[in-house]
Amino acid sequence: MATASQKQLEILQDEQASRLAQLSKKPRLALYVESTPADTFFKVNFKPREETDTSTTINLVLVNEGESIATRPLLRMIVEGREVSAASTATQFQKLIEAPDSAAHVYIVPIDNVRPKVRIPMNVTFTYPKGQAPFGVMFNCDADEIATATPLGSIKLAPRKPQAESNK
After folding, report:
1. Distance between CA 61 and CA 138 in Å, rounded?
2. How far is Cα 8 from Cα 20, in angstroms, rounded to an integer?
3. Is the dihedral of CA 103, 94, 133, 38 positive or negative?
4. How many C-beta neighbours within 10 Å does residue 162 have?
5. pLDDT, tens digit, for every residue of 45-65?
6. How many Cα neighbours within 13 Å face the side chain of 98?
7. Nearest Cα to 151, choosing from 45, 46, 51, 37?
8. CATH code of the region 26-157
9. What is the model's pLDDT at position 53?
10. How many of the other CB atoms lie within 10 Å of CB of 113?
11. SS3 63
12. Strand 146-157 to 29-33 pairing
């Protein structure tokens, strides 16, 4: 009888240890511009996918580099520039309601659960008037297992100088 009780206790302890080990695993979301981490915080010049005098398109990739699922992550993009707007290939990409004279704009992308090692690509196009000064874009994210507004990185985009119009 004592042996059976000891076996049951060992099984319960193993199950509890397994549950605690699983709970200690966390998702770790990272954002890349092409293959460069966005958490370089302005230290790297990013080559845009496409660029005109009034727009810049970049490729973003959200990756779960952690060991467990990120449940319902919400990617947030804060664009610093009164006249800069953004559009994306991501489904459900939306701009938050803000004051008309806001100097920054906030866009969100709700995402389904992200399993470990999964990559979610998206293109983002920033549109602005000719001669736009360089502007920053900050990224943060949260999920059920991740603190609200966990920083993913910042980038600075420097729109190209307008090309001189050719004489006709």
Report:
1. 15
2. 18
3. positive
4. 13
5. 667 889 999 999 999 999 999
6. 16
7. 37
8. 2.60.40.1510
9. 93
10. 14
11. strand
12. unpaired
CA Rg value for the chain: 22
Start-to-end CA span in the chain (Å): 100
Please tell me the distance from the alpha carbon of residue 117 to that of residue 69, in angstroms, as a whole number: 9
Residue type, 16: Q
Q: Which two tokens stand for residue 62?
A: 């959200």
Angle formed at CA 84 by CA 127 and CA 39, multiple of 5 degrees: 95
Which two tokens mark 86? 């953004």
Residue pair 143/29 in contact by the 8 Å Cβ criterion: yes
How far is Cα 59 from Cα 165, in angstroms, rounded to an integer? 29
Q: In what side-by-side order are the strands of the sheet with 104-110? A: 94-95, 104-110, 74-80, 135-143, 146-157
Of the candidates 154, 162, 148, the residue with the CA atom closest to the CA atom of residue 51: 162
pLDDT for 79-119, tens place per residue? 999 999 999 998 899 999 998 889 999 999 999 999 999 99
So where are the chain's domains? 26-157
Q: What percent of the chain has pLDDT over 90?
A: 61
Position 53, amino acid: D
Token pair recorded at residue 111: 């995402």
